[in-house]
Amino acid sequence: MIDVTSVVRYAKAEHITCLCDEPLAPYTTFKIGGRAAVLVKPASEGQIAGLLRVCHAEGLPFYLIGNGSNLLISDDGIDGVVILLGHDFSQITLLDGHTLCCQAGASLSSVCRFALLHGLTGLEFAWGIPGSIGGAAYMNAGAYGGEMKDVMISCTHLDERGEAGSLSGDALELSYRHSAYSDRKDCITTVTLSLKEGEPAAIRARMDELMARRKAKQPLEFPSAGSTFRRPKGNYAAALIEQCGLKGVSVGDAMVSEKHSGFLVNTGHATCADMLALIRHVQKTVAEQTGYHLECEVRILP
Ligand SMILES: Cc1cc2nc3c(=O)[nH]c(=O)nc-3n(C[C@H](O)[C@H](O)[C@H](O)COP(=O)(O)OP(=O)(O)OC[C@H]3O[C@@H](n4cnc5c(N)ncnc54)[C@H](O)[C@@H]3O)c2cc1C
Fold it and tell me: Which of 43, 137, 175, 193 could form a disulfide with 88 if both were Cys (CB 3.0 to 4.6 A apart)?
């Protein structure tokens, strides 16, 4: 086990919530994962920078998590510092009539509600994606024909040494489930969105419509991380998995959803090992039967 004394000391001095040997499963939508050596919940950019500086100075590995809705965490947990950006770092500010600046821990649902409240349209696609705005920016989350790329104009971040920076426009390198941050270790601290004036009733109606489609199509009754695999070029992961007869196939309590075969779900007490074995089984079967390689969309930690 790594020695996290320096992080604990810093967190105490700064009044940052700091939990040693903390189980991580409750922080993920899969409800899977072992313990973190230490989990911290910073509430300001200064605190995040301070934690990154301590990790850098002490050579401690750190891992960023938002709402844990795209994560599969090892059964052995994370022998490192887990920095959670969530409720404690979630302010949303209206900069001008249509520009929002969101701290990275704000949930997409709260940003969507904020936009609705201010009669701003453009973010309806994100209603029902259970992530934080930082996690959504990190992977250019999208659904129903919309994506973060359509509304996100810039992000601020802190690098591994705690130094501040920002990316905007093309430098964000937004493409299918990818941003410049997907290839970096930076911590996104704020996300700025540009929305348009809209009619609240129409915005609400679109949000309701998309939520109804999610409820009809997705196995929301089971813990999952959404679509487990990326969409392969020219096809759909769910269609390929179904075509290979994999619906309902399971390893332990990890199962290919009967309702939506793109979702691997935890039907009870699935372990990370179960889920990984099922992922590999699906990948192998689909590759053998169709020639398509399904790449994992879910991030596996550590
Ligand atoms: C039921 C369900 C439905 C879903 N539907 C969709 C959908 O329609 N479209 C879609 O795109 N996704 C969907 N997802 C997946 C998931 O919600 C998104 O990928 C979301 O953007 C992840 O955000 P998060 O805060 O949960 O990130 P986490 O899962 O906590 O982290 C994911 C990755 O982002 C990194 N990260 C998180 N926050 C930061 C930060 N502030 N700075 C730097 N890196 C960071 C983490 O290090 C990790 O590598 C779904 C998931 C579920 C469970």
Answer: 43
